[in-house]
Amino acid sequence: ADECLEDSGICKAGYKCQNTAGSYTCRPGVGYRCRLRIVAIFTIDLYDRYSVTFILYRTRLRSACNRAYSNNPQYIGIIVHGFSPGSVNANVTVLFKEPTTAPLEEIEQAVSNGTFGDLNVSSVVPLPSDDDSSFFVLKEDVKTVKYLIQAVMIVLPVSILIATCLLIAALVKIYTTPKTPPRSVEKNSYSMYNTITTPSRPGDRSNMMRFYYYERDAIFND
User: Which Gene3D superfamilies match (predicted)?
Assistant: First the structure.
């Protein structure tokens, strides 16, 4: 019996089934690494392999690659190693059963034709097989970032609430404090104090000098 023909999924992803006498073996396929640049906004969730966003992107990439390589019998699948900023850079290994001379040709054609699934991929860059670009963040680091975000989300609303309460209290104090009427001073108020008429010559009242004496009154209204 040929177990490889009977069960196509007998080996895990990235391995090919090889039939042996009375049994089978799972051998790793030949991998070719590349970087796909997806035109999208990078979010911190893409650092976490267990996040919904990471799983969604990985599923969409696998679906697009499976469609692109549907006519290639040597194609096994892809391994999505991770994502990094710069739009969204996907670090991917394309697996084949045997070595091939143009491992990324199908992806490049699909990208140029605009048929690479629902992902807007702008470029496909081959990578060395020993490329170990840091596309991963340790799980502990991801947890730390999540805790920091949660702390900010808790502290920020509380701070805004406290500031709002203080502002309202200050406004209430301003508008409820009784006002003392200001003391007004009327300046430059003059009243005629006396009028003296003095003849310029004895018996001559036609030319008279009038002297007006004014006294400045300061009127205080309390």
Answer: Laminin
